[in-house]
Every structure is written in C-alpha cells, then in structure tokens.
C-alpha cells in the first residue's frame, strides 16, 4: 500500500452514491413527529407506543428485527421540591435525578453552600467533575452547590457524609439526569455504589436566592419521590446480513428512551437509524458485511442499562465479530453546523475525518470519548466512533449565551421540557443521516478495515510522556517506551504489506483484517478501562492509560518513603499491564505481516 491515507479514506462512490441518494426525510420526519408528544420513560407506556411504531415500520419495510425485553434496574423520578424553614418559608420547584433516593416526606437539615463550577461547564466535566469541599466538613449537612446532579458529585456527597444535595443548574430550566456511578444493572461488585442520599436540582435564579439563605445558617427541607425498581424494558435490534462476510458486522446504536419530549435527544437519532435500516435493507445485496442497528431503552433512567445488557448478553460475539460500534445521539439539531466535540477512538480519527469531510464538506474535530453515552463496550476492546453528532459552533453558543450541555447539538433545551420540535432541523438532519450512512457503509464494504493504529501509538506515547514528566526520576518508563517503539515499527511493516488489490475472502486480506480488529481488542482496554474484561467501569472519567495516572501525584510523594513505595509499586504493575498489551499487539501485527 502506498500510504495509510488510501486505507483510511477508502470509498466506493459508484455504489455508495446511489444509496445515499435514496435517503430522504419522509419517514424520519414522520417518526420524529410521532415521538415528539410522548414522554419516553424507560419501560413506560409512551415508550412502548414508540417501540410499536418503530417495529411496525421495520415490519412494513421487511427489515428483520428482534424485540428483546430484559428486566433491568431503572428509576423514574416522580416529584421533588425544596422548602426553606421558618415562618417565611418558601417552596422552590425542583427535580430529582433518576437513581436518587426518596425522602418519604421531607428531609430537613442545615444548608451548607459549597461553591461549585458556576460558569465553567466543560463537556467532559458534565459527566466527571466532583465537589471540592476543601477542609469543610459536609457531614450531616444538606449541601448546596452549582452544577448538574451528576454521579461524581453525588459520590462525593456520599463519601463526605452529607444527608442530601441541592444542585444549582446554570440556567432558567432545570435539567433531568441520572446520578448513579453504576454502569448498567448493578452486580455484587457495584451495588454498594448505589446513591444513598436524596439529591435535587433547581434553576439558577432560585439557586442564587438559596446561596444567600445558606449564609444565614438556615435550615432547608427537600422532598424527593422516585419509582426505582427492576422492570422490563424494550430493546429493538435490526439485523441486515452482508453478502460476503456476514458474520462480521458494525453495530449502529442509540437510545430510544428520553427526558420529557426528547426530540433532539434522541428522537432524531431514532429516526436516523430507522432510515438507514430502511435504505440498507433495500440495498442489502450491496453490503459485504452485516449491520446490526439497535435502539436501547434504559439509557436515561438506568445509566445505559440497555446497551450494557446487550454488551453482557452478546459479549463473546461482540468480541469475535463486531468491527465497530457507532453511537447515534442527537443528530439533526438546530444550528448544529460543525462536527466539533465528536468522539472517536484514536485509530478511527483518520477514517472519521475523511468520511465526514468527503460527505458533508465539514472538517470534524474528533476527540477522546468521555465515559458517557452508550459506550458500554470499552472493557472488551471494541473500537468505536461518534457519541453525540453535529453541534453548533462556539460562536453561536456565545451569541445565544448558551452554557455547555451533553446533547441536542448544544441547545440548552437538553434534558428539559424545551427539547421539542423547535430543536430539530430538517437540513441538518438529512446531512447527518447521510454522514452516518456513509460512515457505516464504508466500514461494511472496505476491503481492509480502515483503522490507523499509528495514531493510537502516537496518542499513547503523548500520554506516557505527560506522566513521565510528572514522575521525574522516581520511576523509569523505559519498558513502555521500548514496547511502543517496537509496536510502531511493526505497524510500519504491517501497513506497508497491505496489498493495493486487497479483497474480502483473500487469505492475506483476512489476516490483515483480523489483526486490525484484534489490535483494538488488546489496546483499547488499557487506554479506556480499569476493569477486567466483561466488567464495567463506573460512570466516571477514565483518564488515558489509567494505570499510570498516579504518576501525576509524584510531586506530593517526594521525600516520603511510604508514599513513594506505594506509588512505585502501583506504577510497576500498571507498566507491566501496558507492556504486556503492547507486546501482544505487536505479535498480532507481525503474524499478519507478509
């Protein structure tokens, strides 16, 4: 092969073009309009109406599909309020997130204000940031702070012994959410992390009043009521077989449930996947590999319960046969004219950039996926791309005075009653449908799976040097550097050996493709997971090369033999895990190199 660009930018325009031209807004827009008035709590009657509509359409089009109905752990918020104590007590509107705790009436306690991240909402922090209490004890208090009621913050409340939490959202509307760190259904290892304190969210104007009230030393009462239980939820999976390598497939997926009306998050995504199912089924004779298209419940109210169930139930098949998982969330939103903040594992960055630029004319800015979305497959090493879709430019956000949110193309109607038809945009939606369809089609038909692990090695090397700079002389990372160099050299020879005339069914091409997939299975867990295979990390940030993150604390350990000893032991074991993985990846590449 002359260069890697020809691998990652592969396209069969003659076949792809007519398929993309068959994509229209007729069925997608009708589906969005049907979904728009429904309130799709996981396992609810409204959600079931939408499942019936979806499966009815798949049946009408002839698309093979299966309706799974696992019993999973989900939480429906019912009511909440906040009330100041005393003769002039005032009641405030509030929302409690899914997986919070019911108060059985009201819970009263001293209100303590801990400044949070007001005005500094960063996308990754939405899902990760905690509460910095400093030296202030929060034990026995109801804590008031800025931000979304996300799992990192609630976990800090629990650790500090607070009896409740009130979160001041950044705008006029209160955002719904889910506050547990447990990813999917709890098991014996994770069930102790179930939230144990009631928490609520309030809007910003009310929050400012309560900050002043907290300064007086007053007491506060909070009320929360939830229906949290194991219940059946629907998961719809369409299966469209390929003609040449049907056992290999791409998993295109997104969540069916949502908050209140959930038009741009995620009725637009549901409709996008349905339209791709319709057109790909009609053109199934042109697909070389298979595609599975999955609509999950349990995303919003069970912390990705549906996709986690699928990851557990079909783990071995996913490990052996899934080329990529492609997440479809919040496409086609109002003012969403960029693909900035678009998630992609590093080996897919060149492919993603080439495809999006080619199909839409927009140059994307792919970045590391946060521990969010329905990325329920990291621990088994699946390569993935996209989480959220197009988004509005930073200039537009500033013009609208928008703060950062986790969907809806950047519109702050995300997870509020304002996520209505107004947030869907026809032109942006058809562009995004075409983008998703082209991305999946190219992955299905590319003779060689279009990954570039040279980018992955460079990414790992950059991370390593950051940690090494912090560790200084305390720890020697030479073994990792050596292993990275060896893998990098092996990849040079591997990609040079890819024939220009590669075709599916050819023994050499099959070996190359197996290596392309297997290397991801080996490298992705060490970069995106702390857990053993087939277990799920908490819904908290997983830093790059997480086994080496403690190197950043080397300065605090300097001169303390006990702390230095623990740090060196941890880094030694972490380095061993990484070197071992790099060695396995190199051996995989070398076996496939001719």
What does this structure look like?
α3 runs antiparallel to α8 (263-282) and α14 (453-471) packs antiparallel against α15 (478-496). The radius of gyration is 24 Å and the shape is globular. The chain is built from 18 helices and 15 strands. The longest helix has 32 residues, at 561-592. It has 594 residues and is α/β, with parallel strands linked by helices. A 7-stranded mixed beta sheet has the order 3-2-8-4-5-6-7, covered by helices on one side. It has helices at residues 4-8, 13-21, 26-35, 45-61, 123-128, 151-160, 204-214, 263-282, 305-313, 315-321, 349-360, 394-400, 426-445, 453-471, 478-496, 507-528, 554-557, 561-592, and strands at 65-68, 71-84, 91-93, 107-113, 142-146, 164-168, 199-202, 219-232, 235-240, 245-255, 289-296, 322-327, 340-343, 365-367, 384-385. The protein folds into 3 domains: 4-70 and 233-445, 3-Layer(aba) Sandwich (Aminopeptidase); 76-226, Glucose Oxidase, domain 1 (3-Layer(bba) Sandwich); 453-592, Transcription Elongation Factor S-II, Chain A, CATH 1.20.930. 55% of the residues are buried. It starts with a helix and ends with a helix.
List keywords for this structure.
594 residues, alpha/beta, Aminopeptidase, 3 domains, seven-stranded mixed beta sheet, six-stranded mixed beta sheet
Percent helix: 40-55%
Structural class: alpha/beta
CATH fold field value of the largest domain: Aminopeptidase
Instruction: Tell me the major beta sheet.
Output: 7 strands, mixed
Distance between the termini: 12 Å
Uncertain segments of ≥5 residues (pLDDT<50)?
Answer: 118-125
Average pLDDT rating: 95
Assign the CATH architecture of the largest domain.
Answer: 3-Layer(aba) Sandwich
What is the radius of gyration computed over CA atoms, rounded to a whole number of angstroms?
Answer: 24 Å
The strand count comes to: 15
CATH superfamily of the largest domain: Zn peptidases
Total domains, how many? Answer: 3
Strand order of the largest sheet: 3-2-8-4-5-6-7
**What overall geometry do the principal axes of the alpha carbons give?**
globular
* Share in β-strands: 15-25%
Q: Can you identify the CATH class of the largest domain?
A: Alpha Beta
How many separate helices? 18
